[in-house]
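Progress note, sequence design subtask.
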């Protein structure tokens, strides 16, 4: 799947001139804030920060927590890919990119009615969510009243920093520090549990037709879990590769984590691609939406699941990952 990314960076913060007065200069809000979350990861972050009651608008893809869309305006629509194959989705993305057709559309009427004071958006991937520029244009057209935070982390550390920045923008900075502190402690526990163990070579397959390797924060997850990420470069974008390059990398483990897919979808795509993968590698499918591709708090769950796969540390989640085969094995997990 074609991925378009801006230069590496983290959260950018923009304040419109006519923003709400419910904002104290010390970073603590003086009243409840109306929040529009225009990507799934920021919706997860906002809920994790205890801001669910403040969210007035979300996207059609926001599905965590389960009631994320309940009682809230759906402000962003996009391609319904449920009945499409991986190849068909890739072709649709490439065609939209070539014609400069937006993959996501902001419902300006619903956006105006929602009247948000804080808008959470992104510029990291223009084929994965609504670009921040579209939000800026809508705010200017409708009458700028909102603060805009663009959530654009490229590494795992930047994801955690972004959570703190979003918390500060919402006027709850201490909640951000508490949440990231807990997440960092969990990562430290994983690091301690896998310290000194052999590091299996791990390839994360982000798309199957054509094959894409996973970039950005995903290599950090592999390293955090006690593995060695092959082919990918931490902090760099995902990009297309070949089955021959994957075979030449000789991974011990392949984790199929297709962007936009849950465990059942990842399992189906992994089964379709299994005969193209290195025969000696252990192949797993993972709920990519939950644990790999969305830059939010559940990435730490993803690191824990990878540690369970690679080293038997912790518990493999029945609804998180699934062994596909073939008969490859990890020597460090043998009796």
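Output:
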């Amino acid at each position: 799947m074609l991925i378009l990314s801006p230069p590496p960076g983290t959260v950018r913060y923009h304040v419109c001139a006519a923003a709400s007065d419910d904002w104290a200069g010390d970073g603590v809000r003086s009243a409840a804030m109306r929040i529009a979350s225009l990507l799934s990861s920021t919706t997860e972050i906002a809920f994790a920060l205890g801001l669910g009651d403040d969210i007035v608008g979300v996207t059609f893809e926001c599905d965590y927590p389960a009631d994320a869309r309940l009682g809230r305006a759906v402000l962003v629509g996009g391609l319904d890919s449920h009945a499409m194959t991986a190849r068909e989705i890739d072709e649709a993305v490439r065609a939209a990119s070539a014609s400069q057709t937006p993959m996501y559309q902001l419902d300006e009427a619903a956006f105006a009615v929602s009247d948000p004071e804080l808008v959470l958006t992104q510029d990291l991937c223009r084929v994965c969510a609504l670009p921040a520029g579209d939000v800026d244009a809508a705010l200017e057209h409708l009458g700028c009243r909102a603060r805009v935070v663009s959530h654009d982390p490229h590494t795992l550390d930047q994801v955690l920093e972004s959570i703190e920045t979003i918390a500060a923008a919402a006027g709850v900075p201490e909640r951000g520090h508490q949440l990231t502190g807990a997440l960092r402690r969990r990562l430290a526990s994983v690091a301690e549990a896998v310290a000194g163990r052999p590091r299996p070579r791990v390839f994360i397959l982000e798309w199957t037709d054509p094959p894409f390797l996973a970039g950005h924060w995903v290599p950090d997850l592999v390293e955090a879990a006690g593995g060695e990420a092959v082919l990918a470069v931490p902090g760099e974008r995902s990009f297309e590769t070949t089955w021959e390059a994957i075979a030449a990398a000789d991974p011990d483990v392949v984790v199929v984590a297709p962007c936009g897919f849950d465990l059942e979808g990842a399992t189906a795509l992994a089964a379709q691609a299994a005969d193209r993968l290195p025969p000696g590698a252990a192949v797993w499918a993972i709920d990519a939406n939950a644990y790999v591709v969305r830059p939010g708090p559940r990435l730490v769950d993803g690191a824990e699941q990878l540690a369970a796969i690679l080293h038997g540390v912790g518990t493999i989640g029945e609804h998180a990952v699934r062994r596909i085969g073939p008969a490859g094995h990890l020597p460090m997990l043998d009796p």
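The longest helix spans residues 173-194. Work on this subtask will continue into the next period as scheduled.
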